Please model this.
Amino acid sequence: MDYLYPVGDMDKGNEAKYDEKIMTKHKERSISRIQNYKHMKHLKILSLFFALFVLFSACEKVSPPFKESNGGGHDTTGVVKNVLLEDYTGHTCVNCPTAAVIAHDLKDLYGERLVVMAIHAGYFADPHPGSLFDNDYRTPSGNEWNTFFGFQNYPSGLIDRVPNSPGDYIVVKDKWGIKIADEMEKEAEADITLSTDFSGGVVSIDVTTEFLKAMSGTYSLFVGITEDSLVSAQKNENPEVGDTPIINDYVFMHMFRGSVNGTWGENIFGDAIEVGKQYSQSYQYTITGNPDNSHVVAYVYNNDPKTVIQVVEKDVK
Model:
């Protein structure tokens, strides 16, 4: 299930709408950048083929490998930078369904290059026992991030945790598309390979990271779990998204469910990274939700200023 619309609305055959003015602007700019990216990539490929043709024509033998790696020859050709969108939300936030639709459409636009985590934190995520909003979707990690990054207004988000200025990371929903397009244009600095195996309620996770260029600072690996298609009540003030003032059967997507290796992950790379070396780590995690709708998210970030340099996502099953 890959939609982000109220179940009730879908049953009636009415697709939810979204803010056309905002998304059209974001999509036009993003599509243009994708086209430019593809054009430049094709030029680079043609240039590479020509260079290799000249090389093989001039020499009787070229001894491989062309690029040495301590990781056993893992091919990093064509690695692109993926982007992490963290949507800070809550079930009593009336503007959050609109933000979720923006995230949904950006995910449709970029596919696997955009990883979305919906973080339920802050006062709008508080459970209210005895009401429609008695579910507690908060997590210890989400609460800690919410405090650390200084969220006060919702919905808001983080784009690769890139600071707008020192100490200011928060991006309002109307600027998500522009910020994501900017991040997509950056060169990949690391490659992450992620594999999963699910058995007996436990997912086994293997993560391999390879840095593609020399960089200063220290880095950490974070691994977490998200889940799609949880259904419960959500407050809403946008009739184009669903019923107002409450969508009783709202479908929550990309919901962050917990960290596998701690709120801030762990530094498995040491005090100085080594280009071309493969850093591997394995984990096991008990899935408490629906494994068919759950995903593993892994990202590598610079410990100061917390900026994510690469992220990947894979289904639990």
The chain has five helices and 13 strands. Residues 1-72 have pLDDT under 50 and may be disordered. The chain has one domain: 7-60+75-315. The two ends are 14 Å apart (CA to CA).
